[in-house]
Amino acid sequence: MTQLSSAARLSSAARFSGAVRVLVTALAVLLAVTATSATAHANTEPKAPDDFVALRTVDPTITQEMRYFTPHNFVGERVDGYQQPLCILTRPAAEGLHKAQVKLLSQGYTLKVYDCYRPQRAVDHFVRWAQDLDDQAMKGEFYPDVDKTRLFEDGYIAEKSGHSRGSTMDLTIVKLPAKPTRPYVPGEPLVPCYAPKEERFPDNSVDMGTGFDCFDTLSHTLDPRIQGEQRANRLLLKNTLEELGFVNLAEEWWHFTFKPEPYPDTYFDFPVSSKSLTNSP
């Protein structure tokens, strides 16, 4: 009986050891496949055409405050596709901004960009957010007087954006020397984007009458209610850029497109990252 019991134990141990080997082998295969899949996905991310550049390689003096890389935007979180706080543009658009910057620096100002190239996946994120009527966390600042059900109808959100073509940017002007601004703290009390500048979230830009991405008719570049210094600031930005081939979107004082666009009919989806560029900065 003792010999039989020992043999049985040995057989059982062998079976257990074999089962463990099978399990370990299967786990190793699974990990290898997962790693290969992740590497393949990373390697298959779309790349930008050769004539897309990081703005800082063309003009490092232009301030960059890339809002969609941060939670301080109408969505309330970092937007899909923004892997780095980086302004990417087609080279002609970037060179046009450099020329505008030279003019503004001579007058004691600098440009500041809020957004540049925007991947299609980011636009898709906006669309999903707009369709979720329960998510109104940032309404108090960015669309206080607009019912979220009207964002598509009123043109604030669309399924395609000129930003995805690479020659459109959102920007403002900052008086030099530029003052630092504190970071946004998620959950902090929100103030309407059209409130007086001293009450809005701090921004070191000149007073344009509303904040960036303000979903309100007061954001229309030539809205007659915007007068005095605010109107003069909008016109300084508009006139400076339009003299160099940029076209303003009448509904948004911050939105400009360089013409002619190298890719007028192409909507790109490569991530906002230096890795997307052929000549990484």
Question: Tell me, what's the shape?
Answer: globular
Strand order of the largest sheet: 2-4-5-7-6
Strands, total number: 7
Helicity, in percent? Answer: 25-40%
Q: Number of helical runs?
A: 6
Order of helices and strands: HEHEEHEHHEHEE
Strand content: 5-15%
- Taking Cα atoms only, what radius of gyration do you get, to the nearest Å? 26 Å
Distance between the termini: 77 Å
- Please describe the biggest sheet, giving its number of strands, its sense, and whether it closes into a barrel: 5 strands, mixed
Q: What class, by secondary structure content?
A: alpha+beta
User: Roughly what is the average pLDDT, rounded to an integer?
Assistant: 90
Give start-end ranges of low-pLDDT stretches.
Answer: 33-40
Care to describe what's here?
The protein is of the alpha+beta class. Helix content is 33%, strand content 11%. The protein contains six helices and seven strands. The chain has a five-stranded mixed sheet, with helices on one face. A two-stranded antiparallel sheet has the order 1-3. Strand 6 and strand 7 form a beta hairpin. It is globular. About 3% of the residues have low confidence.
